[in-house]
C-alpha cells in the first residue's frame, strides 16, 4: 500500500505516516513515532503536510494533540 501512495505522488514519509495513522486510528505522536521508527520532528513536520493536504485532522484532547484520518476515500479521489 505504501508503494501505491508513493506512486500517487506522496513522499515515503507521508505514505508511511498516513498508513500508521490509518491503522492506529485517533492517536498522539508517540505511537506514530514508535510504529514508523521515524524521528519525532519528521513525524510532526509530515503530519503538518498531511493536514494541509486535508488528509488528516488534529484535535486537542486532554491537552494533547491527537491526529486522525479525515476520509480515506479522499486518496482515491
Beta-strand residue percentage: 15-25%
Computed CA radius of gyration, to the nearest angstrom: 12 Å
Question: Helix- and strand-based class?
Answer: alpha+beta
Average pLDDT for all residues: 94
Strand order of the largest sheet: 1-2
Share of helical residues? 55-70%
Largest sheet descriptor: 2 strands, antiparallel
Count every helix, treating DSSP H or I runs of 4 or more residues as helices.
5
**N-end to C-end Cα span:** 16 Å
Gross morphology is: globular
Order of helices and strands: HHHHEEH
- Record field, number of beta strands: 2
Poorly predicted parts: none
Entry keywords:
single chain; 77 residues; alpha+beta; two-stranded antiparallel sheet; 5 helices; globular
Please characterize this protein's 3D structure.
- This protein has 77 residues and is of the alpha+beta class.
- Helix content is 57%, strand content 16%.
- It contains 5 helices and 2 strands.
- It has helices spanning 2-7, 12-24, 29-36, 40-52, 73-76, and strands at 56-61, 64-69.
- Strands 1-2 form a two-stranded antiparallel sheet.
- β1 and β2 form a beta hairpin.
- α2 packs across α3 and α2 (12-24) packs across α4 (40-52).
- The protein starts with a helix and ends with a helix.
- 21% of the residues are buried.
- The model has no long low-confidence stretch (mean pLDDT 94).
Amino acid at each position: 500500500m505504501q508503494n501505491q501512495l508513493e506512486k500517487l505522488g506522496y513522499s515515503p514519509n507521508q505514505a508511511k505516516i498516513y498508513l500508521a495513522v490509518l491503522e492506529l486510528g485517533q492517536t498522539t505522536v508517540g505511537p506514530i513515532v514508535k510504529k514508523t521508527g521515524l524521528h519525532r520532528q519528521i513525524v510532526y513536520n509530515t503530519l503538518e503536510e498531511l493536514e494541509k493536504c486535508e488528509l488528516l485532522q488534529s484535535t486537542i484532547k486532554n491537552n494533547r494533540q491527537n491526529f486522525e484520518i479525515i476520509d480515506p476515500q479522499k486518496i482515491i479521489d
